[in-house]
Amino acid sequence: MTQLSLKRLDATRSEFWSELDALLAWDSVSDDKVASTVREILQNVRRRGDEAVIDYTNRFDRMQAKDMRELIIDQTRLEAALNNIPAPQREALEAAAQRVRVYHEHQKSDSWSYTEADGTLLGQQVTPLDRVGLYVPGGKAAYPSSVLMNAIPAKVAGVAELIMVVPTPDGVVNELVLAAAKIAGVDKVFAIGGAQAVAALAYGTQTVPRVDKIVGPGNIYVATAKSMVFGQVGIDMIAGPSEILVVCDGRTDPDWIAMDLFSQAEHDEDAQSILISPDVAFLDKVQASIDKLVGQMERAKIIQTSLTARGALIKVNDLAQAADVVNFIAPEHLELSVEDPLALVQHIRHAGAIFMGRYTAEAIGDYCAGPNHVLPTSRTARFSSPLGVYDFQKRSSLIMCSAQGAATLGETASVLARGEGLTAHARSAEYRLPEK
Question: Which CATH code for domain 7-28+240-369?
Answer without folding.
Answer: 3.40.50.1980
